[in-house]
């Protein structure tokens, strides 16, 4: 597929998607979402890809859903076309995916970053759910994922006032895994992704699946789920390689199977 609104690259076992609609601060219109989804489909199907980084520009990760495209949307069309459901593709992506966020991550942009497994933020990052200022509310998971990530008090504050939260506050609140200087953002995110992609692919995918399970179930069921998956790992070639390499004092060479 020829991409017009994103740049898709690979570096070793890492895939990178760069949102590239600079004039609109990477506002997310349906064409942009379709392109991201197509790139994710391709990366998911490709055994040579072990992790993905999604990023924007230095000024803006994504300034939200495209307000101009949404402005005249009517309820029947929103309902019949199931507006927003196609955005879930990122949340359903099965391999590890890191959001490298610089600048604005607002509305749907913040929601998209939260659909990733973790966020690495540049020191200029600004997060917010400003939909209330537009007469609406978050619609791509903001009320749910933000609340799970940072708790009720801060989520209510952000969603009801529409204010922005800087990188420091976002890290303190648990939304962001790491903050780095802007110039280090991409190298740091790519290094983290390369480290992940160097590990056993079944192990990283199963780890992601198990951590995500914590959001969906009780502790007892989550622990049971973890144990079942953990046991199944002894059927992988990479478990044998990883443990034997340790015993033989050499670096493991994973075959990702
Ligand atoms: C469409 C947008 C946009 C958006 C920016 N632009 N955000 N276009 N949708 N979400 C466009 C502007 O119209 C402008 O186009 C150009 O990008 C540059 O933006 P400026 O406003 O001139 O830049 P600046 O003064 O630096 O302000 C940056 C900003 C502001 C603070 C990020 O642009 C802003 O408040 N944007 C809207 C943020 C927002 O409300 N996001 C939530 C959207 S609703 P022109 O043509 O004038 O140069 C949402 C709902 C999600 O996400 C629910 C489910 C999807």
UniProtKB/TrEMBL annotation:
GO molecular function, one term: enoyl-CoA hydratase activity
EC number: 4.2.1.17
Gene3D superfamilies listed in its UniProt record: 2-enoyl-CoA Hydratase, Chain A, domain 1 (3.90.226.10), Lyase 2-enoyl-coa Hydratase, Chain A, domain 2 (1.10.12.10)
GO annotation terms (biological process): fatty acid beta-oxidation
Keyword terms of this UniProt record: Fatty acid metabolism, Lipid metabolism, Lyase
Keyword presence, Lipid metabolism: yes
InterPro entries found in the cross-reference section: ClpP/crotonase-like_dom_sf, Enoyl-CoA_hyd/isom_CS, Enoyl-CoA_hydra/iso, Enoyl-CoA_hydra_C
Domain of life: Bacteria
Catalytic activity: a 4-saturated-(3S)-3-hydroxyacyl-CoA = a (3E)-enoyl-CoA + H2O; a (3S)-3-hydroxyacyl-CoA = a (2E)-enoyl-CoA + H2O
Pfam families recorded: ECH_1
Function: Could possibly oxidize fatty acids using specific components.
Family: Belongs to the enoyl-CoA hydratase/isomerase family.
Official protein name in the record: enoyl-CoA hydratase
